[in-house]
Amino acid sequence: MELGIFAKTFPDLGAQPSLRVVRDAGFSTAQFNLACLGLPSMPDAIDDDITAQIAEASRSTGVGIAGISGTYNMAHPDPKVRMKGMARLTAMIESAHAMGTRLVTLCTGSRDPDDQWCYHPENSSPHAWSDFLHEMELAIAVAEQHDVDLGVEPELANVVASAADALHLIETLKSSRIKVVLDPANLYERGPASERRKTIERAVGALADWIVMAHAKDRTEDGDFTAAGSGVIDFPHFVATLRRNGFDGPLVTHGLAATEAAAVARFLRGVLTEQGVPIS
Asked: At 251, phi and psi to the nearest 5?
């Protein structure tokens, strides 16, 4: 596996300085975000010089680009907001290869009009699902044109809230462009250790054929997010479950402060080593 981190964990230093800090903290790949260049994460347009900066930074530092963030609220209640988000996602998909990746990660969205990551009781409604499916169909059409994959992440607060939802999406749209980003901390909020492990095993088992990236974020006993290794998630179990199901892609951490990055890299590297996982 490759060990990675959200590049936006670090200040908006520019492409090369950001990836240099990623490398120096102990990571070999990054999930990139245009915020690292002081730009909006989802700008209206992406100039060629921007993509060239990112690609050159990756080459010069040796840090791969595991994926690029293309998150907007795909279930926003206002179709005009969704239309603007889709236009920006289109620009991201069109530029992905030039930035050195073929994976654009998505946010399946929320009915909350102000925060795409915030739970809303209507997220599970047929209307929310229908609006989200429409956005996915549009995104898949663009992704097909540009040979790009779309990373969908099950997250409790979003429309795709579970592994079952992700599998339902895959079975409904039947597109090879749909891939899965799996974060164990997004599969549950609280619960005993045995149930947490069962939840992870069920999710990995159900989605193994589509997982292209694993995330490494942790949960406290109270359900809050925290840096990997400082909460209750059994990461050796998570890694072992991924490997048993054939996963050998990037393990990308986030939800941590820049000052925690090197310690989290050491922790995750230790987990991979203990599990006998080759690290590239």
From this structure: -110, 110
